[in-house]
Design a protein that fits this description.
With about 160 residues, the protein is α+β, with helices and mostly antiparallel strands. It has two domains: about 1-55, Arc Repressor Mutant, subunit A, CATH 1.10.10; about 60-140, 2-Layer Sandwich (Alpha-Beta Plaits), CATH 3.30.70. It has six helices and four strands; from the N terminus they run αααβαββαβα. It has helices at about 5-20, 25-30, 35-45, 80-90, 115-125, 145-155, and strands at about 65-75, 95-100, 105-110, 130-140. α2 (about 25-30) crosses α3. It is elongated. The mean pLDDT is about 95.
């Protein structure tokens, strides 16, 4: 797939990743191509699955969800993986679920109002059949959440 993406596509991705609301006209003027070229390229990137959606970054702290924790999940049996993941997906406070190597089978990010609400999430997680135990990590402060620097590191 990398051969299908060129420098213009990469510039489009960089600009869209920092501002999903930017117009095709503004993109075109920054990259020095026509708006129709931008339209065709964005459609191509969507068709390739490179662009999955256009989204916004929400400051959850300003919505009162300032407590962030991570759960390392140990499974009873490997065959319970799919069922456990589907159950975890149903818990709205779990915003990220990763399949991992190492000591945990699954690693989850939890957003909650406070430690009491996070404890309720943990109780809910512990009720899921197939989970042997969990280990909780409390985030004191998010120090980096920067997709722009990652985009800047990609070269064509």
């Amino acid at each position: 797939m990398k051969n299908e993406i060129d420098k213009v596509d990469l510039e489009i991705l960089k600009l869209l990743s920092s501002n999903a609301k930017i117009s095709y006209t503004d993109l075109a003027s920054k990259i020095l191509v026509s708006p129709s070229t931008i339209h065709v390229r964005v459609k191509k990137l969507e068709d390739l699955g490179v662009i999955k959606n256009f989204t916004i970054n929400i400051d959850y702290n300003k919505l009162g969800l300032s407590f962030t924790s991570y759960l390392g999940v140990f499974l009873d049996k490997a065959k319970s993986f799919d069922m456990v993941v589907e159950s975890l997906r149903l818990i709205p406070q779990i915003t990220v679920i990763d399949f991992t190597t190492g000591q945990f089978s699954v690693f989850c990010k939890v957003r909650a109002i406070d430690s009491s609400a996070a404890r309720d999430v943990l109780k809910n997680v512990h009720s899921i059949e197939g989970i042997r135990r969990t280990e909780t990590f409390i985030s004191m402060e998010e120090l980096l959440n920067d997709k722009d620097s990652l985009m800047d590191s990609i070269e064509m």
